[in-house]
Amino acid sequence: MYFLSGWPKRLLCPVGSPAEPPFHIQTDSQRAFFAVLAPAHLSIWYSRPSVLIVTYKELAKSSTQFGSYKQVEWRPDSTMIAVSTANGYILFFHIASARGEKYLYEPIYPKGSPQVKGTPHFKEEQYAPSLHLEMKKVLDLQASIISLQSMLEDLLVATSDGLLHLIHWEGMTNGRKAINLCTVPFSVDLQSSRGSFLGFEDVHIKDMEYCATLDGFAVVFNDGRVGFITPMSSRFTAEQLRGVWAQDVMDGTCVAVNNKYRLMAFGCASGSVQVYTIDNTTGAMQLSHKLELTPKQYPDIWNKTGAVKLIKWSPDNSVVMVTWEYGGLSLWSVFGAQLICTLGGDFAYRSDGTKKEPLKISSMSWGAEGYHLWVISGFGSQNGDVESDIKSSANQPGILQFQFIKSALTVNPCMSNQEQVLLQGEDRLYLNCGDASQAQSPRNSSAHSEHKPIREKSPFSDGNLDSQGLSTLLGHRHWHVVQISSTYLESNWPIRFSAIDKLGQNVAVVGKFGFAHYSLLTKKWKLFGNITQEQNMIVTGGLAWWNDFIVLACYNLNDHQEELRVYLRTSNLDNAFAHVTKVQAETLLLSVFRDMVILFRADCSICLYSIERKTDGLNTTASIHILQEVSMSRYIPHPFLVVSVTLTSVRTETGITLKMPHQACDAESIMLNLAGQLIMMQRDRSGPQIREKDNSPNQRKLLPFCPPVVLAQSVENVWTTCRANKQKRHLLEALWLSCGGAGMKVWLPLFPRDHRKPHSFLSRRIMLPFHINIYPLAVLFEDALVLGAVNDTLLYDCLYTRGNAKEQLEVLFPFCVVERTSQIYLHHILRQLLVRNLGEQALLLAQSCAALPYFPHVLELMLHEVLEEEATSREPIPDPLLPTVAKFITEFPLFLQTVVHCARKTEYALWNYLFAAVGNPKDLFEECLMAQDLDTAASYLIILQNMEVPAVSRQHATLLFNTALEQGKWDLCRHMIRFLKAIGSGESETPPPTPTTTQEPSSSGGFEFFRNRSISLSQSAETLPASKLNLQKTLSMPSGPSGKRWSKDSDSAENMYIDMMLWRHARRLLEEVRLKDLGCFAAQLGFELIGWLCKERTRAARVEDFVIALKRLHKDFLWPFPVIPISSISSPFKNGKYRLGGGEQLSKSQSADPFLNLEMDGRGPSAPRSQSWLGNIGSTRQEIDTVSSHGAQTQDAFLSPLLNKGDECSIGSATDLTETSSMVDGDWMMVDENFSTLSLTQSELEHISMELASKGPHKSQVQLRYLLHIFMEAGCLDWCIVIGLILRESSIINQVFGLMQSSEVDGEMLRNVKTGLYAIDRWASTD
Fold it and tell me: Per the record, where are the segments of Polar residues compositional bias (predicted)?
């Protein structure tokens, strides 16, 4: 609503000596001038720029006669000032332009600047006028003057002898007698026949303020009672006055009235503000709400503020500023939502934690449009060593100017159908829609399918009125700040209205005269080309965007005519391109709904216009036709009381019962906010329905409206949308209300399920209240989010040492910034529906929002809030909601996560209450295991550990550990090992952390165990024997995350238990020939593989079936089978299909029968692999990840005949070449040309490419070599043979045979190797 910005400014106060500081400030009705009072000085300040214009100093002689100045009041036309003095005199001053010199200050521009001095009103805007003060009249009232109040042409004065004087501004009483308050009858309401009179002596008015819309005075008496005095007829005499008491207030101190909302705010000695309104029927004073600090928010100060000292409503009546006797400022919205308070946080404490002296305020006044608050301050008595030495400048009263940014909704409520937040400062706009040029595509369109010219259609709109993408509306915390054109501001300050279009790409602002608009895409302002046209129009009722058009209501100064104008954004800003419609009376409010414009006029009538786009030739304009006029004068006492008026498609019956379903989105009702009362007028469908034939929409007879119905009280803002979405009807057809301190309300439609007949007893709509923690400024309907803004503060007092600071403003005040904020509200609504036994509606609503990214959070919030409230309630709850909420959440697949996340964020004491409602945690744990949701199961394990005996949690942990091992969730396995150890050693107080994010599956490839190893694992096999000893050292002591586990207490029972499970898993992996998984398992869990393999050499670590093992390893490590040599093929490219190789893409084998049993010598040339190989050969000889799966006819290496020679021999299989280039039927010439450039012989090249083609991915090679080291160390020679065959390196086979001959190898193993090799031989030759 209103937000503080930056630091306050201190104005230079040349007035008087320190003995005569200013103590009172009062603005004139236009807020252009400020009168500042000191004991014997009256000075007039100009507001922009903030400069002193003239000072009147009382002579010493007359000063003793009159006494010191006390209060000041302006005449409504700003030509006179009345000052009351201590000895009961009223001094009337006349303000005139100074003779001779008309202007006191003028701006100086640098040479060549574009500012034009010739524009109309330029001097009035840019120059500070020179004024002259002259005392015209002195009036002696012979009693101390307590209160001074301007009332139209008269001045109302209350004196301490209990009299009310009505004085004309010329200083005459006009023969009217003063009214004695004792003769005014007071009663509880105006209906009682006779009132009682003030029953105490020396009664007088302490403070009073006139309220035009209530036609009377809010008064505070000197004994603390408060009331309202109203004349019963037009004459203001004692016989005609009647008074009404507020029965509950006995400690009133001050009062301020809000004319727009008809509210009277009474400050009390207790520190709270009681806000009253007058009951329309009885005339009694009714308490509307209270403004008070809560002990929850301000525990140390809420009851120590002292009495309320001052209350001031802002110029637009949307917020109120309150200050207390002991200091501090607080800002509240109309109906009591707290926006700012300087008694807490950085305002009250320094960065070192010490408490600051609160700012004490003796007087304050709002500046034009509420952008500034002028304050006369004096900080409280300073007690400190430094301050006592140095007379602090802040100690003396001075004039401070606080700066504010406000929401566009405060002055232009038609913005409420938008999803953007727009804030306006005095010279800049703050938008939340991000940078339009980089905005995301809207949520329905998948991508920028086509980029049309910006003029025609924006690249990120998708034609229909869709809401903006979440990413642009919520993207980050920062605002998109648009500086308002200085050329426009110079002659049109202050900015009165602003509006943004549906897509958030264009903004328009209205100052004193005319308007200007800005495109976020081009980053340019567009102003009137003809300055006279701009200065001839005053926008009266706000402005709105309709597609590419700006719609505004204005007063034409030339023709003295009220008009409704439409300007096209893309054409030049000129009246020649505008469509102008004359209007009968002044427009106060304007709003747009679909293709209709709705005006509320000063004669209390509502006019509906249709607006449509017209293109004649090159010119595009909009045409406007009046559709309907509705008089509201019967229901509206004063036109100024209407806060907002809008058309909506909301109605009380649902679309199913309508005869014409297509009208579901028509303008069905008018919503009118009348001084906080939301009034709805629906179309009257009770009469005969008119059938539409061929008549155009302009001639269509619109249905009349029913009499108004009051929907809600204390309403500040209303949001509805004209979009439709069948999936989210609940949210889009609802009406959202912001109700100040009472939070928000939503008027939600209730739909029968599956188009069943609606229940006759079920209401069609329901009003649900809910509280949110932010002040709402926009509603994102489909996204179930409220957007807002919040003041944040930054302390800079560390920049100053306490010695030299002299309490600078930067030290006394934090720097204020405005931050974007948002809040989910869906859980509040679901909960309210469940409370009212509307579970079916809640389910429909929740299912429509289940795709939202934060939906799991919504369920969790709802469960958490209900649990906290019910489990910590001191009273027994007759009808608990938790079981209903638990049952509701089970309808969603996220049930298990929701419950466990809620439990983990709740204290242990509430767990029993929670699980009594949602079910036994053991059952929920088992459900997680069945659903393979191991991370959630791990969270349940922590709950079981705290709620069950260790044996139970151990049993469940074992289950989870085994499942995690099976699925290769290594992070979880590590946590489980720690957890099982903790249970065993009694450390169960430290539960394992819940596993985070995605675990890597076992197939993800790399063993990540090279981190702390000292050996280079890609070295060739020939160096193996030399490094054997070194390997023994490095690998025997694993240094994985839980390496320590194996060292000190490995003989304890708990470690034995864990080891048994690990051994069992390793045995399973070996039996199933899952060597890749075994490597990952050992590396991730620090499992001592070598030691275990040594023990299991003759049992689990035997190779049972060499052929199966060979096939399985080829498949697991993506290792290609041997490639046929080229010599026997005329052209490799003619023999089959080729596909891009690499990664895990397997190509189908095409075998060629004639070459199946062809034998070659060891160094056979191999096929060239096309031009893309050449780069690799030339550069790094890096292995290519080629893959070729074994098909049914694939052959493998046939090694047995030549084993003794130690040569690697291969029988070529007729697998196809895995192509890496796009050559399918290549021309050999091209390849040959490339060969010659490399100066390689054909056979050399074939040999190189053969070598490359026979290798798998580099990663697999590293992994296989590592496993080879491990098996070699453990003496599992049969596995070494298998790996040697796959790598096709004869040196490995030689080495194994060497080991078999030299060392005492088990005879059983030799026999196993022999049988295995024969089996491979048979398979290779026959299969």
Answer: 436-447
